[in-house]
Amino acid sequence: MPVPRRFDRRPPERDTTRVNDRIRVPEVRVIDENGNQIGVMRTDEALRYAQQRDLDLVEVAAQARPPVCRVLDYSKYKYEQAQKKKAAKKHQTQVVVREIKFRPKIADHDYATKKGHVVRFLKGKDKVKVTIMFRGREVTHPEKGREVLERLVEDLGDLAQIDQRPNLEGRNMTMMLSPSKAVINGTWEPPSDEDDADADELVDGPEATEADAAGDAPEASADAAPEPSEDDATDGDGADEDVPAEPAKADAG
To answer: Which PANTHER family does the protein's record reference (predicted)?
Structure first.
């Protein structure tokens, strides 16, 4: 059975600007296409003045006495206003608040995972509400939750700034973080700990290579001139004695 179609019963949006014949007042104050004020005119005369120039008579100040009308191209005017509105909306920054929850006895692995989420939110220029949830008698030790929040702020470094200090409300302790000015301006760079680690590996690399080369040299010489073992000596002597042993047994038979 087909689903019945829902109709939008709301009336369509209508342009409430009075233009040309929709201006019903007997007289208006007219401003020409160049922005110069002409003065008060009868409405039919002002409309005729606009039509002679292939333009529209647009009411711009309905509350004035008499109302103020401008002579302009209304289609072009609407297009320009739409473009200005679009540009203003483009430059607006929408603030998004993310929330992430911790426990006062959180494990190191869970802490690292949640901290990674906070870093991702801040890099995305979102605010972060950090909440410590207390259960049972944990609420009697709020300092444990405060330690977690202080640890988080210290680990984030210059990535975040504190908008709201830790505040205990009921069984929850909350703190509000926002991205730092460096993140917002796009000048923030991650700490160079990884670069330092790579540099240490590069320093240790040649030393390890020389040590391996030094260690390989004795092994190579040992392979070239192996020392005879007791088993090898015994096998060698046995091989020398096996040659006359077989004829001796044959003679005895």
So the answer is: TRANSLATION INITIATION FACTOR IF-3, TRANSLATION INITIATION FACTOR IF-3, MITOCHONDRIAL
- Which two tokens mark 245? 């042993």
CA–chain centroid gap for 187, Å, is 14
Do 131 and 170 lie in one domain? The reply is yes
* Domain span holding position 67: 20-74
CA dist 135 and 48 (Å) reads: 79
Quickly list DSSP for 111-137: HHHHHHHHHHHHHTT-EEEEEEEP-GG
Alpha-carbon distance values, 3 to 6, 9, 10, 193, 249 (Å): 9, 18, 21, 61, 108
- What's the chain's length in residues? 253
- The two structure tokens encoding residue 197: 């680690």
Spatial CA neighbour of 220 closest among 209, 232, 212 = 212
Is residue 190 within 8 A of residue 214, CB to CB? The reply is no
CATH of the domain at 51: 3.10.20.80
Which helix (H) or strand (E) segment holds residue 166: the answer is strand 160-169
How far, in Å, CA of 70 to CA of 109, rounded? 68
My answer on whether 128 and 48 are in the same domain is: no
Non-local (6+) Cβ contacts of 134 within 8 A are 104, 142, 145, 171, 172, 173
The mean pLDDT of the chain is 76
Model confidence, pTM: 0.45
- The count of domains in the chain is 2
Write the pLDDT tens digit of every residue in 181-208.
888 887 777 776 544 444 344 334 444 4
Angle at 168 between CA 164 and CA 170, to 5 degrees: 140
